[in-house]
Amino acid sequence: MSPTQVARPIILDLMAAIVFAGMFFICKYLLKVSGLHSVYAATATGMGIGLIQFFHKRWVREPIGPLQWLSLGVVVALGTMTIALHDEHFIKLKPSVIDFAVGLFMASRDWMTPYLPQEARDNIPRRTIMLAEKLWAAVMILFAAINVGVAYLANFAVWAIYATFVPSAIIVVLFFVQYATFKALAARGAKAAEPA
């Protein structure tokens, strides 16, 4: 499978959070909407996308992936609080809450398996997959801690650029590193399993 095929289900499950970040950037930097109003627009859009995805999957009876449940729950809960509280400090700390929640979720056993191609499941040792899951959890919890520092030490514009682009860019790089590593491990495992 190509990296795009592997990434597609994860991206779809995290669509609400991705749309939130994209809408914030569009409102703030392209449409020149004020910071708080950009957050409100992004929050409402992310919540809407998450709910549409949820009800569509229920309608067509598709299974709802674990990351989609997490993404929807976090976006709806924190989005509602964002719109209700109108508090800039809460808005800046919200990515930390999201990243910490995702990190705790990823620290649980076997979240990655549903997103792996069958070839990887069959040929990569379970211990290796569990190690990758724990490393992703550590990365997300580290993002949560770094965001707290940036939120308190930088102004709103700097924080917004950091929160929108830096973790996402690092996640993309790490995804492709993992993809290449798992592909090599799966090929090696398949070769070792072939009869002599």
Descriptive account of the structure:
The chain is an all-alpha fold and 196 residues long. It has one domain. It is 84% helix and 0% strand. It has helices at residues 3-13, 15-30, 35-59, 66-85, 88-107, 118-123, 126-153, 156-193. The radius of gyration is 18 Å and the shape is globular. It starts with a helix and ends with a helix. The relative contact order is 0.11.
In short:
By secondary structure, the chain is mainly alpha-helical. It has helices spanning 3-13, 15-30, 35-59, 66-85, 88-107, 118-123, 126-153, 156-193.
Keywords:
globular, single chain, mainly alpha, 196 residues
Terminal residue distance: 26 Å
What is the radius of gyration? 18 Å
- Show unreliable segments: none
Number of helices: 8
Count of discrete structural domains: 1
Q: Would you count the extended β strands for me?
A: 0
**H-E string:** HHHHHHHH
Helix content: over 70%
Shape: globular
Query: What is the average of the pLDDT values?
Result: 81
Provide the structure class. mainly alpha
Percent strand: under 5%
Biggest pleated-sheet summary: none
Topology, element by element:
Elements: H1 3-13, H2 15-30, H3 35-59, H4 66-85, H5 88-107, H6 118-123, H7 126-153, H8 156-193
Helix pairs in contact: 2-3, 2-4, 2-8, 3-4, 4-5, 5-7, 7-8
